[in-house]
Amino acid sequence: MPPIRSRGSRKPPPAGFEDIEDTLLEYSNKMRDAQNASHEGKKKHEAVWPVFQISHARSRYIYDLYYTREAISKQLYDWLLKNGYADANLIAKWKKQGYEKLCCLRCVQTKETNFQSTCICRVPKAGLRREDGGGEGGAGIQCVSCGCRGCASSD
């Protein structure tokens, strides 16, 4: 959860927040546990994977509440985005065709890759199969940024 500000006035959450507060608190506890977990024996980039996955799950939960189930109001949805409970940029990508299953924004940023292309997890699994009939060629492929094994919308 976002830090509580001590100065100034903080608007109270809109109606309906009480219904989802317990779930958001669970995500907050999972995030704290992931941040405090031991990183020994892990590669540098593997240490942040749980943080990305929990952030994705929390954003997907809020996205589903508003767009799929229509269980929360527009005011509550905007308040949650404004106060950092969900990633507004990631949700904006989910609304676009072809990005419905996107795992994180790092996977579509071309500046951070070697060949100025998207991440390997964005390639459809059908495109990763070997042509010689030797089975799944992409069975062990995993994103370095977030640990995703495939978030292409065509999968």
UniProtKB/TrEMBL annotation:
UniProt KW Nucleus keyword: yes
Keywords: Nucleus
Name under which the protein is recorded: Cell cycle control protein cwf14
GO CC annotations, alphabetized: Prp19 complex; spliceosomal complex; U2 snRNP
Membership in a protein family: Belongs to the BUD31 (G10) family.
Main subcellular location of this protein, as a coarse class: nucleus
Protein's organism: Capronia epimyces CBS 606.96
PANTHER family (UniProt xref): PROTEIN BUD31 HOMOLOG (PTHR19411:SF0), PROTEIN BUD31-RELATED (PTHR19411)
Classification via Pfam families: BUD31
Origin: domain of life: Eukaryota
Keyword check for Nucleus: yes
Biological process annotations from GO: mRNA splicing, via spliceosome
Subcellular location per the Swiss-Prot or TrEMBL entry: Nucleus
